[in-house]
Structures are given as structure tokens and as C-alpha cells.
Design a protein that fits this description.
2 copies of one chain form a homodimer.
Chain A lengths: L1 H4 L12 H4 L17 E2 L16 E8 L3 H6 L5 H8 L3 E5 L5 H7 L8 E5 L10 E5 L5 E4 L12 E5 L4 E6 L10 H20 L4 E6 L23 H12 L3 E3 H5 L3 E2 L20 E6 H4 L2 E6 L11 E6 L1
Parallel strand pairs in A: 1-11, 2-3, 8-9
Antiparallel strand pairs in A: 2-14, 3-5, 4-5, 6-7, 7-8, 9-12, 10-12, 13-14
Helix pairs in contact in A: 6-7
Chain A binds a DNA duplex (9 and 9 nucleotides) through loops.
Chain lengths: 317, 317
Amino acid sequence: LATEATSIHVEESQKVSESDYAKEPWIRFAHKKPQKGWVAYNPRTMRPPPLTRDKDFVKLMSWNVNGLRALLKLEGFSALELAQREDFDVLCLQETKLQEKDVETVRDLLEGYENTYWTCSIAKAGYSGTAIISRIKPLSVSYGLGISDHDAEGRLVTAEFDSFYLLCAYVPNSGDGLKRLSYRIAEWDLSLSKYIKELEKSKPVILTGDLNCAHQEIDIYNPAGNKRSAGFTIEERESFEKNFLSEGLVDTFRKQHPNVVGYTYWGYRHGGRKTNRGWRLDYFLVSEALADKVHDSYILPDVPGSDHCPIGLVLKC
Amino acid sequence: LATEATSIHVEESQKVSESDYAKEPWIRFAHKKPQKGWVAYNPRTMRPPPLTRDKDFVKLMSWNVNGLRALLKLEGFSALELAQREDFDVLCLQETKLQEKDVETVRDLLEGYENTYWTCSIAKAGYSGTAIISRIKPLSVSYGLGISDHDAEGRLVTAEFDSFYLLCAYVPNSGDGLKRLSYRIAEWDLSLSKYIKELEKSKPVILTGDLNCAHQEIDIYNPAGNKRSAGFTIEERESFEKNFLSEGLVDTFRKQHPNVVGYTYWGYRHGGRKTNRGWRLDYFLVSEALADKVHDSYILPDVPGSDHCPIGLVLKC
DNA sequence: CTTGAAACG
DNA sequence: CGTTGCAAG
């Protein structure tokens, strides 16, 4: 155990006992050598003290569920449990893979979260799909980029709240053979960036979801081997910087943890989750005006049910 | 229990105890009234005393497995167990749903049955497919109807033995909306009939498999409701008579049990198996020259793993 | 490796 | 309802 965990430096406070180990697969590393002083993200120890509900804060979560119906069928876990455990205010979902006809069956999924907004792919049934599920009623909601013709795949929901716009996005995967790379960058990323800039004229923006890009080497278990893999091409990484970060959006997890390895996705294909061969593809990016209000940007790597895990953002109001 | 079983007259010898009941779903009936003195087929009581292996006989079996790989994955049952239980000489399979590339993985499925012959659909992957698996080495084997262009779906294997040809057939389903009815009748049934007549010039024939036709009202749980359902249309039933029975093939189960309800197929769709809402679609038809040599033509309705159950034929040599 | 749809039964 | 192969990730 110790030998496996030494691959990245693990702080003493993060050491887990044998008995905790089974419950905390995130502690296992695939990296064979310690790299650049990176440390492993431990959601038990690396989070600030929780804010109590009598303080003013809002808790947002995001999760690529890889098929909502499959998730709900799973025993041993329900979206409801996450709600109870995390007591979030807003939950953003990606890859619901719902069709329009399925939406009614899940519209009132979570008691207390009466405000739910769903997009489905009309281009391909059972593909893509996003949702915002909220305790707070948004001032307004809009679907898609609006200004473009990229809205057939149900990849974006925007909810306007008092002090920010919340964008729940499922960015197109560049695909096997990178056959959709140019669409992803030249069309989607660009359009999304423009859309965000437009919104920022009136209010700060929070962009969350599966942005389908591991920004830096620290954000992927095997950077060298994935230089031409969808999600880690130099084109996508540069687009991520140019269209989002350079435009003033702050990667909240990275800001809080400059040297921390925290993955949010582990491919099913090679049992990547138990060896922590993961990627950080899910983000909370916030407009600069909000950056200082972030109390905690975190990952819940132990939540099962999807190839992605949920992430969270606690924002002081 | 008693009330459910009275829907068709059940002979005293067939009555089962409460404890046996769970194991014998075949005894349950969907018919709401006794009809025409029909009785239920009970494989425990309605079979002649078994022949011992020192007498000269051959035991043939046939089973539409509805996907051989799925069947083999099932726990609680394996094709091997059927071999051990039934000690057959030859097993005919339909709907193996194998592709050419899968055949090698199952070619030596059953120890002691070294002679195996497989057809696959080249028209549609994972569709149709038949096999003959034999302890006895056939004199010759041929695939398809040979004389026609209906062989792209892997629906027929013929094995020549000393005293008969054995045809393992998976007759085309007429499909939803009966869109393949005319092909089934005018092309397939006719070609098969001609093929059989040709073979009969040299030797008697045994035609077994999923013939996809419930011949008479006694052969289906709900005759009135299925007059336009694939497998019970008047066209298919007349074709069955004209092309096979009138041409001298004897329906061995029906000959042995003129008034017995014995189904071999229960659709998955409405849990038909536990209510015995079945059809008799699987047959052993034999040339008249063989009819008197039939010791037993039987059904094993309690064998799980497919929507069809295996049937058997014991033939004195 | 897993989801979901589609075809077929 | 259940199998299979398929596209997608």
C-alpha cells in the first residue's frame, strides 16, 4: 500500500489506514514516480471547514452522470443520497442521455429541488443532454448557445441567479481519431466563449460541467501517452486557455490547489478508477469578480455510478 | 393452485404437489376454459419408459437457444448439463446468433461431441445461425438449401447419417406486420420442401428445429388472438401442411399425443412462461418410413435459458 | 468497459 | 422482455 501511494508525495495528514483504504480508491496512484512535488487531492483533509447554513453561501454541484436512467437504476447509490450528503443548492448534470419523452419521469427527481431545466439531444436519441436542478428559482433560464446552430445536441443550460449566470455545459468530445476536433474548437469553444462574454456584460458567470479537456499535465495521469487523445490534444488545451482562462475565467480548483492532482474522470476501459488513472475534465470556472468569493472548490472522487465523479463549489454570497 | 390448473383438464397422474409446483411451471395454464378434452403435456408422466443404452436407438435433441453466448453465460445452467441429463446423440441448435469469428470458441463445447457443424448469417451479424453437434460422425454435411439463394442467413444444416438425413432448420420469422410472410412461404418453405423431396429420393429425412409455425389451435395458447401474428397466420399453417405434412412428413409429437398441449416457446414479452402462454413452434418431423421407429417425441418445458425449450426424439434403429 | 438505441424476435 | 451488434465516450 505504502509503496503504491509513494508514486506521488502524499502528505502525512492524508495517509489513510488499511481499513479506510477500500473506501478511498482516489488515494491509489498510477504514476510511477513522484512528479514536481504534486500531491494527491484528499477530500477528507484538503477542504476548508464547512460553512454553516446560517452564513450566506451557495453550494453548487456538477456531475457527468453518463446516463441518468442507468444511474438511478443502480443499487447502493441514488442521486437523492448525494443531495442529502452534500445539501447542495444547485446540481448540474451532463450526459443525462435522456430523450424528451423521459424528462417527465425525472423532472421531480429530488424533493426540495422544484426548479429543474433539461436539454436533450434532438440530433441523436439518448445522447448528450444536460440539466440544472435547483432549490433556488432562477430569474431566467435559457437553453443552448442561442446565437448559433450548435444547439441540436442539448449541451448547455444557462440559469440566471441574482449575482451570477450558471452555465451547465457538456462540451463535445473530439472523438476517436479526433474527427470532431475542429468542430469542437473552431465552432463550439469559440461560440461558447462569445456567449459567455455577452453574458458577462450584465453579470459574472460560472461555467461548470464536463469541459472535456484536461488543461495541464497535472490534470491527467499519463500526459505523454495522451498527447493525441481527445481531451488532451494541444489544440484543446490551447483553446481552453484562449477561450476561457485568458478571457478572465478562473479555474477554481486549480487556484485553490496549485499542485494538487485531483481527477474527475476515469475511463471504464482499463479499470482506471481503482488505479486512479484519471483525468480532470470537470470544472467550475468563474468570472474574476467571483474568484475571491470561492470558499471551496472540491471533488468527490469516491462517488460511484458514473465514469465521472461529482465536483462542488461553495460560494460566499 | 388447483383452480389454476383446472383450466385444461389435467389427468390425475399429472397432478403435482405444492412443493413440486415451483419447479414445474409448464403445469400452469393460460386457457380459461377446458377445451375439447385437451390435456397438458407432463414430461414426468407422459413419456414411455426410457430405452437403455444396450438397445439400439438414437436420441436427437433440438433447441432454439436465442443466443448461444448468452446461454453459456447463464449461471445455474449449461448446455453441458443438458448433455449429461439427456445423454443425447445429436443436438441441433437454432438462433445461435454467432458470427463466423465466434465459432471457434464454441466448436468443442461438449466433450464427447466432436462432430460439430455451424452456420452463421453473413447477411446480418449476430442473427440467426444453426448448428449440429454430434457424438456420431455424419457421412456428410451440407449447409443451406444449396439449390437456392436463401442461404445468406445460416438457417439450415443437413447431416447425413446411416439411415436418415437430419435437417436442423431455423425457419424465417414472418416478422412484425408480416412483412416477410410472402418470402417465408413462397420462397423459403417451398425451397425447403423441394430440398427435402430431393433428399428423400435417397434416404428418409428428419426435419427438426424452430419451424416458426404453430400448426393447429391446440399448438398455441390464444388461437383467436393470434390469427394475424407471425407463426399462426393461416398462410403459414397451410404452408406447413402443404409443404411438409402433405408431403409425407409426420409431426411426431402430435402423432404420439393427439390431444396434448405441449408448448416449446413462450414469448418474453408478457412473462408467458410462468403462465404457460406458449406456442409449439419446434418440431421433429420425420419421413413416413421413420414414423414407426419413433419411440418418444418429447418436450422439456422446464429447461431455462431461452424463450424456447429443448425438444427430443428417441428413434429405434 | 459501459451507456443507450435499434433490429429482431 | 431479451439478445445482439452498434455508435459513442
